[in-house]
């Protein structure tokens, strides 16, 4: 289905990059990722971003892979100090979609589709997309766009936030219709302004890449790759390329900037680390036909160890645990400083219900990397099967540092329930639901938590639940505004 050009233009001008439905779902205009970023004030920015994230999570399927999330978070933290950003408290979300997409939202929300890993052949190419996104945030493009539309601020905000959520979740036509209703009148003078935003984000992003130790020439390389992809589509290319093309002028400008900047010496370990994370994503995208992911990986001439890693994970998916663990151990012996290899072996042993082995591997890793969240979560999940009280304590420690992690709250709810803390289990399930944007469920869980606390005579817990209920009301009000 071909979507009207005006609606695609609205989609691109008004939101971070969106995966729209049907044949128009190809994000060939990736340099326009995140066209609405930044904030009105720090408080508004945070409130908008968190409300948007709840909406988004309620409507899309996420890929909650802790190892990949941790890797992306490290990349963002590496870029952030050089991206002119004041607030560096980020939340990373992974969308389980093959569509080429990434976005940044006010309040430090950074999202990536698994499809970006398929398109970006190397670490610097991937970093160029996120550097561009952080450029939008640092230049407060969201606030500046809202200032130009002050008289229609609230409906515009509602239109593009709701529209992006629905479109990204697979209901593209409904989302685009929502945006069309609020923004068609504002479309005529937005094109030049949006292009200015893109130029600013390109400038900030490309300079941040150089300063952070990445190759700034990766950004024009990515632009050229997108241009080639669009040209291959011929008449089937999305119509928004007509309004936001990856032009030769833009490619030339980014190339000229990159040529003037320092190019860091490649870090072989960092390069391999990306290849391994990319292998994880490609396998997740091709679980039904793992050979297809392997073809994509081999097509970009990766390190042979990335191929071996992919094959080890595929063996685990095929329940060939011994072979998988043996392959991962060989890779660990070769690259002992790559934590994600050992962490992968922990997860393979856990998924095979080899809990004692998983515990031993996890504890050995955590002696060297005590703060490595993916393995802390894996160890807690194993403990949940063997010693729920121990798992509960481990998860309490994790939540003190990672209170915005839905996976940690979900595990904590299970651990509390299995260790006899019924009210706490309901409360933690409510925390999970509110982070996922399921506010009705969250309030229902709070009601159950309150009833359990009062039945046990635990009025301290009841007061805690009451305080969180008031917080949840604020979260729901923020969502309702959109």
TrEMBL record:
Active site feature: 133, 202 (proton donor)
Signal peptide: 1-19
Assigned EC number: 3.4.-.-
A GO cellular component annotation in the UniProt record: membrane
UniProt keyword Nucleotide-binding present: no
Function: Functions as both a chaperone and a metalloprotease. Maintains the integrity of the outer membrane by promoting either the assembly or the elimination of outer membrane proteins, depending on their folding state.
Protein name: Putative beta-barrel assembly-enhancing protease
């Amino acid at each position: 289905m071909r979507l009207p050009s005006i609606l695609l233009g609205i989609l691109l001008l008004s939101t971070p990059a969106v995966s729209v439905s049907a044949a128009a779902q190809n994000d060939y205009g990736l340099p326009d990722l995140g066209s609405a970023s930044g904030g009105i004030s720090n408080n508004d920015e945070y409130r908008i971003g968190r409300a948007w994230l709840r909406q988004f999570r309620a409507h899309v399927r996420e890929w909650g892979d802790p190892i990949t999330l941790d890797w992306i978070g490290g990349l963002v933290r590496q870029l952030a100090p050089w991206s002119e950003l004041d607030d560096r408290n980020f939340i990373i979300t992974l969308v389980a979609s093959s569509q080429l997409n990434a976005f940044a939202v006010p309040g430090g929300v950074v999202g990536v589709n698994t499809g970006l890993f398929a398109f970006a052949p190397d670490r610097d190419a991937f970093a160029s997309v996120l550097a561009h996104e952080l450029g939008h945030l640092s230049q407060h493009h969201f606030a500046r766009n809202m200032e130009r539309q002050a008289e229609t601020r609230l409906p515009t905000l509602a239109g593009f936030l709701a529209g992006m959520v629905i479109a990204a979740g697979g209901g593209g036509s409904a989302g685009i219709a929502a945006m069309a209703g609020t923004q068609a009148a504002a479309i005529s003078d937005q094109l030049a302004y949006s292009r200015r935003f893109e130029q600013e984000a390109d400038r900030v992003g490309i300079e941040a890449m150089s300063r952070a130790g990445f190759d700034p020439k990766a950004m024009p390389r990515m632009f050229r790759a997108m241009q080639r992809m669009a040209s291959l589509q011929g008449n089937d290319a999305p119509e928004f390329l007509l309004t936001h093309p990856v032009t030769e002028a833009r490619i030339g400008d980014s190339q000229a900037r990159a040529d003037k900047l320092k190019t860091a010496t490649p870090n072989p370990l960092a390069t391999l680390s990306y290849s391994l994370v990319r292998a994880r994503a490609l396998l997740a995208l091709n679980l039904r036909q793992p050979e297809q992911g392997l073809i994509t990986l081999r097509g970009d001439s990766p390190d042979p160890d990335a191929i071996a890693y992919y094959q080890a994970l595929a063996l685990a998916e095929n329940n060939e645990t011994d072979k998988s663990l043996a392959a991962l151990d060989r890779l660990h012996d070769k690259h002992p400083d790559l934590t994600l290899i050992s962490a992968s072996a922990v997860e393979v042993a856990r998924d095979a219900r080899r809990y004692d082995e998983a515990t031993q591997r996890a504890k050995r890793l955590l002696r060297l990397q005590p703060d490595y969240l993916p393995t802390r979560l894996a160890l807690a999940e194993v403990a949940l099967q063997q010693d729920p009280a121990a798992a509960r304590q481990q998860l309490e420690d994790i939540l003190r540092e990672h209170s915005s992690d839905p996976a940690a709250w979900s595990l904590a709810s299970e651990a509390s329930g299995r260790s006899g803390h019924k009210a706490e289990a309901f409360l933690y399930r409510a925390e999970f639901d509110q982070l996922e944007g399921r506010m009705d469920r969250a309030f229902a869980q709070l009601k159950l938590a309150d009833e359990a606390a009062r039945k046990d005579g635990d009025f301290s817990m009841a007061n805690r639940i009451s305080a969180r209920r008031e917080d949840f009301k604020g979260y729901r009000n923020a969502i309702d505004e959109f």
